[in-house]
Amino acid sequence: MDAFWLSLVMIFLAELGDKTQLVALTLATCYNTRVVLWGIFWATLAVHVFSAGIGWLLGGLLPGDWVAFIAGISFIIFGFWTLRGDSLDDDEAGECKTGVNPFWLVFTTFFMAELGDKTMLSTISLATNHPFIPVWLGSTVGMVVSDGLAVIVGRMLGKNLPEKAISIGAAVIFFLFGGWWMYQGGANFSIIIWSVAMFVLAVTAVFFFRDALFRKSEGN
After folding, report:
1. Could you tell me if 32 and 100 are in contact, meaning their C-beta atoms sit under 8 angstroms apart?
2. CB atoms < 10 A from the CB of 173, how many?
3. 147-167 residue pLDDT tens
4. Which of 18, 78, 107, 200 is most open to solvent, judged by the fewest CB atoms within 10 Å of its CB?
5. Domain limits of the chain?
């Protein structure tokens, strides 16, 4: 798949249920939807130029098989992250502010929220083994489209969005891509390397779902 379209699709999926998408839904109740999406576009464009650059540099420093293998692991981790979903803290949800330029408020909010977020890390992973500019632009468009659809559909359907089904579908795609890239890169790796990778994924799964596991153990 072309790097632009691959990045668009993967970041579109990564943004589903993500913290920044929840921020978009919140801001769209306060300000004009067009202004919100315009602010998201420029904030994402700014953050992802660094993300794609970091990934491109890392991809040039590591052997190709290791790049693919590590990218595969990261996408499986993003699948766990997607299944768990995100929530907003009180300070992130915020209130509608008056006397502030809406564009710069959205731009600043998204720029800060995107730092270290799943979509930023996904962009880095994609850029390790794909060209810089298509990943940068594709990831930006994918995020804006995902947030735009969420805002429009969220206003139409409100609480009736099938969030769980959407998260499961997105996570499955992440798992498939991650597993394929791990196989492509690590087909000739030793059993020790694969064992370490499986251990890392198991620990990550426990980390993301620790609350659910804790509640289950309490129920028993």
Report:
1. no
2. 16
3. 888 777 766 665 555 667 767
4. 200
5. 3-190
